[in-house]
Design a protein that fits this description.
mainly alpha; 2 domains; 3-stranded antiparallel β-sheet; 49% helix; binds zinc ion
């Protein structure tokens, strides 16, 4: 088993470093998902801790290291967000806030129907909240 892998060693095997004319700083590309980022260790660690492909591989191998442990810490902080269902009053309050965000910000009524926005809100709410549709916002 030998010495524990150093952070640099750990990271080097998952990224390819390269220079890009578009960026001042050296870049790195994740071997697992092709995500490109600035070639800095903290960013690489943060990426791997969120890289589903990498985490799946490690889980399959049954291996843990500083990064998978970090990922587990991150996900174990979320149970509070993965609540069963929103209270009706809370849901109504969120809908009201969402409607205000659209109207006061002069956004399109369909703001929350945009797929990326939808997926963002579902993620941060632990899939407990679906924002109001454009028809619902329009009725307010
Ligand atoms: Zn990745």
């Amino acid at each position: 088993m030998g010495r524990p892998a150093t952070l640099k060693h750990l990271l080097d095997s998952h990224f390819r470093e390269y220079d890009s004319p578009e960026f001042k700083l050296k870049r790195a590309k994740c071997h697992h998902c092709d995500t490109e980022l600035v070639n800095e260790n903290p960013r690489k660690v943060r990426h791997l801790a969120q890289c589903d492909t990498y985490l799946d591989i490690m889980a399959e191998l049954g291996k843990d290291n500083a990064i998978t442990l970090k990922a587990k810490r991150l996900s174990s902080k979320q149970p509070a967000l993965q609540m069963a269902k929103l209270d009706k009053g809370v849901k109504e309050r969120f809908d009201k806030q969402a409607t205000l965000a659209v109207i006061m910000g002069a956004r399109l009524f369909s703001l929350f129907e945009e797929p990326y926005m939808k997926s963002f809100i579902q993620s941060v709410s632990g899939n407990t909240y679906t924002p109001p549709s454009s028809r619902k916002i329009g009725r307010k």
